[in-house]
């Protein structure tokens, strides 16, 4: 009888202990996820073609959170909220950065072209940094594979230029290798002559700000455009969330959530592992 009573008491104590262990597990998991996303890496997906050819629509990236220190935008929902940056460090020219646009409650991604104190201008599409034209070399046309999420989108008055190779359609864009002074080289697209911001500035980047541009120059509302005109203007360094680190997934848009096998048929495996330290693409 004593043995049965002891067993019943043991079972009663096991139930709350198991519930408590499960609760501790989930709390620990939430805290670890919050810490990883806030201080180490955050996932980010590419919804537009403004950073072609460096980033494709449907790329999924890990964004490194530590390179520039931490602001309130480093944390989910902007909490805890505070002014300035902790362990703040300035970005470098050529960095590909994710930043917050508070007025739109949106996260965007562009390339750092000018840092505080730089003078930025464009003349006929040619970038001029601190009074000197940036090196730009014509490349073979960039061939973007046409897919469900990546149609052959062009900026008027440009007309679509396509080709078919081995049954696969490609959209062709004029491409150039741009090399920042003392910095990285990367590929930019220049679709039209005399585009809406091909002639710009010069402007001086104020303290605590950066000048950002998309690599798809004629299809990017960036620091060349003020916020009232749909652009982003000069971006406060406080709004930077992190630096693009590596692609961990990329899809051509043909996948269906209801058909798991299409997740893999839509995979652009050759894009996985791409880094964005500034090497030519």
Helix/strand/pairing class, anyone? Answer: alpha+beta
Give average pLDDT, whole number.
89
* Poorly predicted tracts of residues: none
N to C succession of SSEs = HEEEEEEEEEEEEEEEH
The overall strand count is: 15
> How are the strands of the largest sheet arranged?
1-2-15-3-4-13-14
Main beta sheet strand tally, sense and closure: 7 strands, antiparallel
Query: Based on CA inertia axes, which overall geometry fits?
Result: globular
Radius of gyration: 24 Å
Distance between the termini: 78 Å
Strand-residue fraction?
25-35%
Work out the helicity level. 10-25%
H/I helix tally = 2
Overview of the structural elements:
This protein is of the alpha+beta class and 281 residues long. The protein is 15% helix and 33% strand. The chain contains two helices and 15 strands. The chain has helices at 2-39, 262-265, and strands at 41-45, 59-64, 96-101, 106-114, 119-123, 126-129, 132-133, 135-145, 162-165, 168-179, 185-189, 200-204, 209-213, 235-236, 240-250. The strands form three sheets. It has a seven-stranded antiparallel β-sheet. It has a four-stranded antiparallel β-sheet with strand order 7-6-5-12, with no helix packed on it. Strand 5 (119-123) and strand 6 (126-129) form a beta hairpin. The longest helix has 38 residues, at 2-39. It is globular, with a radius of gyration of 24 Å. The chain starts with a helix and ends in a 16-residue tail after the last helix. The mean pLDDT is 89.
